[in-house]
Amino acid sequence: MAKQNLDFTPKLTRFNPVRLSDAENRFLLTHLGKPAIMGVRTIKGEINPESRFRMPGQKRDQDPTIYPEGVIPASVRPILDGVMELEELQRFGELKWVGIEAIRKAIEIWFREKTKWANMHKRNPTFPRWPSLYSWDAKGTPHRGGVGADSGEVKTWFDEKGNRVPFAIDLLEIEDAVEPFLPPTRDELQSDDRFYEDPTTNRFECRVKDAEGNICGHTESYDSGSRRSRSLAKTRMRRHLKTAKDEVAQHREVYSLEFGSN
Ligand SMILES: [Zn+2]
Asked: How far is the CA of 199 from the centre of ligand 1 (A)?
């Protein structure tokens, strides 16, 4: 699979509901697919009363308007515009995009997971309010900021198998393309750079470094284009990570990043 090769970049290529207020997400559910001017004119703004009283020595507000309903035009307008642009470009056959329904779905998933987490936290205050900021061990104990956890902001939710799924979505349709090499899976794209795959030499390399910066350098090769051979090589790497005698903690860490904690 490969990204479309476009010789231009549309304004909007990714959508992340986490970055918007609830009111903004609801606004989008109502107005997606309409010209921005139609949606934005429904937003109520008023003059911030505090901005009328200028404090000595302070700059005047650039924009003294506040939006009491929580929808800021500057954050939703680019999305409405971007969607219109994607629709136009698709109509003229310039690209394929995932469509308005996919954005709606991303918003609905965000609301669903957020509500679920809030309820779990309410029932059991030791359950984290934002569980994806934690890593979860085999006993189900959360560790804030542990291996694999979202850092800084909420980025993922957990599907029914416990896999992390990003809330943000790519808007450009991914096309199947004929490629000489096996496509990496989603997990591999997120993989740790100490677990390195070199597709030109058909091998996996262990790039765990010791304190002096020496790379472990363990490699496992596979036959070009053979899914089975590649998967066997990966299994051998897995064994290496589990049994390496040097830099044991680091090898274990790469192991759990690549293969989970069990
Ligand atoms: Zn190694």
From this structure: 19
